[in-house]
Amino acid sequence: MLCILRSPFPCALAIAFALLLGTAQAQTEWNASDGAPLDWFGYAVATQGDWAVAGAPFESEAGARAGAVYVLDQASGVEVKLLPSSSAPGGHFGSAVDLDGDTLVVGAPADGLGGQAPGKAYVFEYLGGSWQQVAQLQGSPGAAGDGLGTSVAVHGDRILVGAPWDATAGIQAGAVWAFRRQAGVWIADGQLAVNQTRPGDFYGYAVALGERWACVGAYSANSVVYNEGAAYLFDHSGGSYAFAARVTEPSPMPNTNFGRSVSLAGDRLAVGATHDSAGLQESGRVTLFRFDGNAWTLEASVQPNLPQAGNAFGFAVSLAGDRLLVGAPLTGGSGAAYLFEPIQGSWYETRSPDFAGTQPGDFVGVSVALGSGWGLVGAMRDASLGWSAGAVQRLDPSGFEAPDAVSFCGCSQGPPCGGTGDPHGCPNGLGHGAVMGIEGSVSIGQDDLVLTMSGMAPGQFGFFWMGDGASEVALYNGYLCVSAGSIGIFRWSVSIAGSDGVLRTGPGLVAASQGLPGALLAGSSWSFQGIYRDPGGACGTGINLSDAIWVTWKP
Fold first, then answer.
1. What DSSP assignment string belongs to 474-512?
2. Using CA atoms, how far apart are residues 286 and 324, in angstroms rounded to an integer?
3. Rounded Cα–Cα distance for residues 503 and 466 (Å)
4. Rounded (10°) CA dihedral 504, 505, 510, 513
5. 455 and 385, same structural domain?
6. Which domain holds residue 538?
7. Helix, strand, or coil here: 332?
8. Which residues of 115-129 are buried (b: 16+ CB within 10 A; e: fewer)?
9. Considering its fold, how many domains does the chain have in total?
10. Residue 14: which of 426, 318, 302 has the closest Cα?
């Protein structure tokens, strides 16, 4: 039975914990056809359409650590290896890559002529059925150690190349050079300069470029505190780059590395801060900003569901539409990548692909790239073809479908009265939280879904409620995770947990809801949560709650 629950609880869209409950994301490992130890294949990646690009800056065909780039047509499986025309030992060609349409730009930050190594960027275009080098891009005048090509970005007829060790504005202050294609020829278009640049800023360590906006990361810039980092935005809508905004960590702390990575998608910006220490030392954080038509404003800050100290979360970021892929190459010793998506205005982790065969030291997530379909995750020290040969994990487009069910709103911050947290519901008399789950399908037609709440004491009563919104409000021994949204909160009938400590309701939920405001319909999304009797819970109220689950119904 479904009943309308008249609830005074406010709606607060703050999703605290998310975990995909559906099937694993399809993925395939890509190894270079001639991969060898110490190549660092996958140190940099880029993707668009069916193209996948991976840099191997330590590959040595053209000389020790001269570098190479591999381009894979993911539709046909054909791989092409690219070397620059002036390749030289130690050039590290492939340290940075970016792709737009049929234009590929590659950074070689230690490349230079006559023993001088200011760095270069190389431009390739897909012409007549093959990739051909069409330009070499250099700074002017350029000096040894500038690191030009540490970061690159391309969009249409424009390219940005970062030189974070450029000393024009002071030792390691950094610089960014702009180039444009005019009548088929790539020419210099000046620098993206800001008057705040100071020695040691590493301005240009990361760059991003979109239709209107350009962004430059300076992960060691000073603003409010020491070396917290900054990101600079430029507006190109007038035909030239005009400084537009400087964004920083919302709660700045020293040495957070804010600006270590940047990515743009339309009017949205993602900035990685690998050493952000909120809650855990150097756990990392990614901050999202939006341009609201007048100014760049904070949209969200995201971390993994289960953050870890020192995991370098935010080392690499990639935005594509309403998806954010984040690399954390030190997570668990082998590294990881996380996919975030917004639901009801809040960003949360929907997937963390479990790459088979990863080993400690692989650096999974050292690079990430999202395209219209495929996703790429670099693991530069993967040992499939020898020590540090490297690999790239390719995420299949089918894995990016909207999740059917996502759990959220755990008790990681601890119960309302204080104490030890739990990734699921708040700890009960058994010492752990209750977990929401589902059995069956989310098909309206089949109507076979069963709601489950596990981790209860056997024989205790409880029930489930649902709402069309999400919240995080202290209630009894735990947190209310559902809210009325625009429709309401509704309660299912009371039942008793079995000997396995699991409470179940269903199937037949769809049929029972028809004709009521809370009717379950194809395409609708509802959050579900369990509430149950808990005599031994941490806060002593005798009532506790599980975490919650967000379900999107299908035909």
1. EETTEEEEEE-TTT-EEEEPPEE--TTS-EEE-S-HHHH
2. 10
3. 15
4. -150
5. no
6. 2-17+406-552
7. helix
8. eebbbbbbbbbbeee
9. 2
10. 302
Buried b (16+ CB within 10 A) or exposed e, 453-464: bbbbbeebebbb
355 and 484 inside one domain: no
DSSP 34-46: T--TT--BTSEEE
Residue tagged 């190459």 (tokens): 329
Token pair in block for residue 1: 């039975």
Residues 156 and 293 in one domain: yes
- In 10 A of CB 496, how many CB atoms? 14
The neighbouring-strand residues paired with 463 are: 531
State how far the Cα of 71 lies from the Cα of 392, in Å rounded to an integer: 12
What local confidence, expressed as pLDDT, does residue 7 receive?
35
At residue 10, the pLDDT reads 31
The total of other beta-carbon atoms located within 10 Å of residue 131's CB is 18
Q: What is the CATH number of the domain that holds 307?
A: 2.130.10.130
Beta strands, E only, 94-220 = 96-100, 103-108, 120-127, 130-137, 151-155, 158-163, 175-182, 185-191, 203-209, 213-218
Residues shown for the chain = 555
Question: Which residue in 451, 416, 419 sits closest to 436, CA to CA?
Answer: 451
Instruction: Please classify residue 136 by burial: count the beta carbons closer than 10 Å to its beta carbon, then call 0-12 exposed, 13-18 middle and 19+ buried.
Output: middle
My answer on whether 275 and 187 are in the same domain is yes
Whether the CB-CB separation of 196 and 158 falls below 8 Å is answered with no
Do residue 306 and residue 369 come from a single domain?
A: yes
pLDDT at residue 397, rounded to an integer? 66
Claim to verify: residue 241 and residue 346 sit in the same structural domain: yes
Encoding tokens for residue 340? Answer: 């975030």
For the chain, the helix, strand and coil percentages under 3-state DSSP, each to the nearest 5: 0, 45, 50
Q: What is the pLDDT of residues 296-327, one digit of tens each?
A: 999 999 988 777 888 999 999 999 988 999 99
Tokens 């349409």 sit on residue:
101
In this predicted structure, what is the pLDDT of residue 422?
Answer: 83
What integer pLDDT is reported at residue 375 of this predicted model?
Answer: 92
- Looking at residue 553, its amino acid is W
267-280 pLDDT per residue, tens: 999 999 998 876 66
Contact in structure between 377 and 513 (CB atoms under 8 Å): no
Q: What are phi and psi of 432, to 5 degrees?
A: -145, 170
Q: Which residues of the chain have pLDDT under 70?
A: 1-27, 112-116, 278-280, 343-344, 397-403
DSSP structure class, residue 513: H
> What is residue 114's predicted lDDT score, i.e. its pLDDT?
47
Query: Domain ends where: 333, 367, 402?
Result: 402
Answer whether 102's CB lies under 8 Å from 144's CB.
no
Give the end of a domain, one of 369, 402, 435: 402
- Decide the pairing of beta strands 450-454 and 435-439: antiparallel
Computed from CA positions of residues 81, 85, 87, 93, in that sequence, does the dihedral angle turn out positive or negative?
negative
Q: In terms of domains, do 384 and 528 share one?
A: no
Q: Check whether residue 385 and residue 504 sit in a common domain.
A: no
3-class secondary-structure state, position 9: coil
